[in-house]
Specification:
It contains 17 helices and no strands. By secondary structure, it is mainly alpha-helical. The protein is globular and about 60 Å long.
C-alpha cells in the first residue's frame, strides 16, 4: 500500500482459507492483539502469502475504518488472497466459532432461573468489566496523543475531545456517536481552514444517518443498535459499551444492568472479535434469531468496507481529511470508553463485587496482566461467593 506494485499472491483455495481462518476464530482469545499476531504468523511468517510491509499497511488502513479493526484485517487478508469469495469465506470462518459459543453462553447466563453458580460466575466476571474498560482506554492513549502532534492548540483540542467523549458516555449514552462524529468533523474543519478553506461535503452523511435513527422498537430498533456498533463506531470493540448500554438497558429494556455486564464479559472471554457482545444483546431482545440478526447487521459493514475499499486503501491512508477526522474522533472515543466505566461500576449490585473490581484493576492496570485471566479469575471469585452464600442475583 505504498504506491508500488504489489507482489503476486499465490492462489489459495477457499477450503484452506476456511480452515486457517476458522482455526484463528476458535483460538483467538484475548482480543485484537491476539488476532493480529495470529494473522501475521499465518500470512507473513508461516505461509509467506503476504509481505510484511503490506500486512503492516493493512493494519494501519483497517484501523482507519469504523467497526472492529481485527475482523476487518481478517477479511482484508483473505480478500488479498482470493478476492471477494476469499473475503466472505475467511470473514465468516473467523467470526463463526466465537459467535456460536457466545450465543450458547448467552442462553446459559441469561436463562430465567440459571443455577446459582452460573449467577455467581456472571456477577463476578461482570464486576471486573469496568477495570477492563479502563485498561482498554489507557492502551489507546499513547498513539492518539502522538497523532495530535506537539502544537499546544492541537493538544488542548485533544483534551477537549477526550473530556467531551467521557461526558457523552455518562450523560447521553446511545447518542454518543454524534459526539464522536462531531469531534472528527470539527477537527477536519479546523485543519481545512488552516490550510485552504473549502466545503467538506463528505463528512455529513454519518451525522445525518445518526440523526435519522429509528425510534421504533422491536427488530428495527435492534438492527439500528447493531448498525451503530458495526458502521459508526471508531476505536475498537470497547467503544460499543456506552453506545449499547443505554439502548439495551434503559431505552428498550432488553436486559438489566447486571446482564449487560455479563454480555460485555462474555464478549471478552470468548474467541473472535469483541464486537460479538452485540449478539448477546440481540439474544436478550429476541432469542437466537435476534442474536443472529444483531451479528449480521454489525458485521456486514466490515465486509462492505473491505471489499469495496480494499483497492483504495492507499488513498484512504493518504487522505489528510481522514487523518484529521481521526485526530478528533480518536480522543473522543477514548474519553467515551473511560467515561463508560462510571455507569458500569454503578451497575454493580453487591458490596463484594467492588472488591472484585478493585482486584481486577490491580491485575490489569498495576500488574499489567491479561484481560481474559482477569475476567476468568473474577468469575471464579463469583462462584466462590455463590457457594459461601453471598448474594449473587
Amino acid at each position: 500500500m505504498t504506491g508500488e506494485p504489489k507482489p503476486a499472491v499465490p492462489r489459495v483455495g477457499l477450503g484452506t482459507i476456511a480452515r486457517e481462518w476458522g482455526w484463528i476464530g476458535c483460538t483467538g482469545f484475548g482480543g485484537p492483539p491476539t488476532h493480529i499476531a495470529l494473522l501475521r504468523r499465518l500470512c507473513v511468517e508461516r505461509r509467506g502469502w503476504i509481505a510484511a510491509a503490506e500486512f503492516e499497511d493493512g493494519i494501519a488502513a483497517t484501523n482507519l475504518l469504523p467497526g472492529p479493526a481485527s475482523t476487518q484485517l481478517a477479511i482484508f487478508t483473505a480478500w488479498r488472497l482470493r478476492g471477494i469469495p476469499g473475503a466472505l469465506v475467511g470473514g465468516a470462518a473467523f467470526i463463526g466459532p466465537g459467535l456460536a459459543l457466545i450465543l450458547a453462553l448467552a442462553a446459559l447466563f441469561l436463562a430465567g432461573s440459571p443455577p446459582r453458580w452460573v449467577s455467581g460466575a456472571a456477577a463476578g466476571a461482570g464486576a471486573a468489566v469496568a477495570a477492563v474498560a479502563v485498561q482498554a482506554a489507557s492502551s489507546l492513549i499513547p498513539a492518539s496523543w502522538q497523532r495530535a502532534g506537539r502544537r499546544r492548540g492541537a493538544r488542548c483540542r485533544w483534551i477537549g475531545y477526550f473530556l467531551t467523549g467521557g461526558a457523552a458516555a455518562v450523560l447521553i449514552g446511545p447518542w454518543m456517536v454524534l459526539v464522536m462524529l462531531g469531534a472528527g468533523a470539527v477537527e477536519v474543519a479546523l485543519r481545512a481552514r488552516a490550510a485552504a478553506p473549502r466545503p467538506q461535503r463528505r463528512a455529513a452523511w454519518p451525522l445525518l444517518a445518526a440523526v435519522a435513527a429509528p425510534a421504533a422498537g422491536g427488530l428495527l430498533a435492534l438492527a439500528w443498535v447493531a448498525f451503530k456498533v458495526g458502521a459508526l463506531s471508531y476505536g475498537g470493540g470497547f467503544v460499543i459499551i456506552p453506545m449499547m448500554q443505554s439502548d439495551a438497558v434503559h431505552v428498550h429494556h432488553w436486559m438489566s444492568d447486571a446482564q449487560f455486564l455479563n454480555a460485555v464479559a462474555l464478549g471478552q472471554i470468548t474467541p473472535g472479535p469483541v464486537v460479538q457482545t452485540v449478539a448477546v444483546v440481540g439474544y436478550a431482545a429476541a432469542g437466537i434469531p435476534g442474536g443472529l440478526l444483531a451479528a449480521a447487521v454489525a458485521f456486514t459493514p466490515s465486509f462492505v468496507f473491505v471489499i469495496l475499499g480494499g483497492p483504495r486503501f492507499d488513498r484512504l491512508r493518504a487522505d489528510t481529511r481522514v487523518q484529521a477526522f481521526f485526530a478528533g474522533a480518536g480522543p473522543a472515543v477514548i474519553g467515551a470508553i473511560t467515561g463508560a466505566t462510571i455507569p458500569l461500576a454503578l451497575a454493580l449490585q453487591h458490596a463484594w463485587q467492588y472488591g472484585v473490581l478493585a482486584l481486577a484493576a490491580l491485575w490489569v492496570l498495576a500488574a499489567r496482566r491479561g484481560v481474559v485471566s482477569a475476567l476468568l479469575g473474577a468469575g471464579v471469585a463469583g462462584v466462590a461467593a455463590a457457594f459461601i452464600g453471598w448474594p449473587v442475583g
